[in-house]
Write a sequence for this structure.
């Protein structure tokens, strides 16, 4: 029987696959098998003396081209606060802590968005403020009252300009100011109105009878029924003073008290404010401004406009807006030579 022999060494009893000559030696390891050898080392102890400690001084620089905030001392009632002039604010904002016990006008709410998108619904009030330098009078400023305001007051550019203009008006006290001129004209017009009423009645009435008659005219006028209801409610511009229905409004920065005029007296006031030689046949806007220095009534703008449009002298002397109203048409050209 033939026996198997190894092709590598030629010996019997084994094949080339299991030849001892191909077995690895114990002292040498296969390079591909060295990654499987696990070696263990002892952990190193922490030595604090080997730490490197360094001190770094970073210079602090002030950023260039930074505009400082402009502020002004504003007085509200008995207290003084610091107002920051904010050119990006559309309305002035005051902190709620400064408004306790301070008289105000107006009832409303406004939603103010911040620069970071936050929105806050705050009351809208009108306060009388002034710059605390002792040379001016108070100016009505519309403010939003906020609890979340960090500073005392944010002043809009419009409000700050109004405060500065009031300083100049109070300092110089010019008698040639337009406000004083219009006020004097209105006083003369009011005297003319009283004199006209006395002549028409045929007798001179004393002040008490005239006031009583005026109050009765106000109470019996159906166009003033809603105004009476608002006057009985506090917190608005209408009020009842000694039985007379009045309205308070700020004109040119000054607080003006107006008598609410009944319908039976409106035509005479319109005539005095527009047609007398002192009035000068002013337009709708200026005539309304002149009347509002003493009187007010619902739909005053509509009545003044209709009265000015019905004035014959104003319509006759009215400027023509368009001088040529002929429609556009084609030009006829001559067909034969020398034909015109």
């Amino acid at each position: 029987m033939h026996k198997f022999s190894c092709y590598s060494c030629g010996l019997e009893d084994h094949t080339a696959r299991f030849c001892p000559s191909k077995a690895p030696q114990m002292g040498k390891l296969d390079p591909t098998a060295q990654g499987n050898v696990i070696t263990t080392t002892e952990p190193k102890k922490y030595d604090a003396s080997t730490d490197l400690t360094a001190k770094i001084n970073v210079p602090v620089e002030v950023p260039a081209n930074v505009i400082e905030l402009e502020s002004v001392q504003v007085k509200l009632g008995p207290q003084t606060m610091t107002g920051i002039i904010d050119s990006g604010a559309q309305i002035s904002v005051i902190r709620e802590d400064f408004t306790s016990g301070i008289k105000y006008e107006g009832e409303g709410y406004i939603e103010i968005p911040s620069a970071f998108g936050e929105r806050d619904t705050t009351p809208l009030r009108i306060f009388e403020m002034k710059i605390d330098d002792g040379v001016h009078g108070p100016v009505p400023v519309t403010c939003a009252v906020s609890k979340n305001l960090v500073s005392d007051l944010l002043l809009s550019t419009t409000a700050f300009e109004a405060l500065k203009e009031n300083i100049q008006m109070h300092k110089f006290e010019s008698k040639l100011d337009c406000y004083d001129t219009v006020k004097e004209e209105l006083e003369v017009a009011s005297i003319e109105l009283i004199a006209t009423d006395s002549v028409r009645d045929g007798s001179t009435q004393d002040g008490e009878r005239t006031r009583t008659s005026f109050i009765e005219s106000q109470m019996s006028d159906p166009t003033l029924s809603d105004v009476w209801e608002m006057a009985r409610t506090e917190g608005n511009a209408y009020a009842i003073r000694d039985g007379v229905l009045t309205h308070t409004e700020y004109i040119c920065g000054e607080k003006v008290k107006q008598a609410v005029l009944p319908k039976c007296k409106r035509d005479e006031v319109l005539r005095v404010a527009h047609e007398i030689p002192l009035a000068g046949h002013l337009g709708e806007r200026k005539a309304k401004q002149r009347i509002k220095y003493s009187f007010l009534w619902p739909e005053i703008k509509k009545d003044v406009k209709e009265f000015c449009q019905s004035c014959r002298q104003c319509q006759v002397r009215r400027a023509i807006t368009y001088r040529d109203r002929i429609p556009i048409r084609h030009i006829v050209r001559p067909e034969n030579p020398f034909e015109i």
User: Anything to note?
Assistant: The first helix runs from residue 157 to 172. The mean pLDDT is 76.
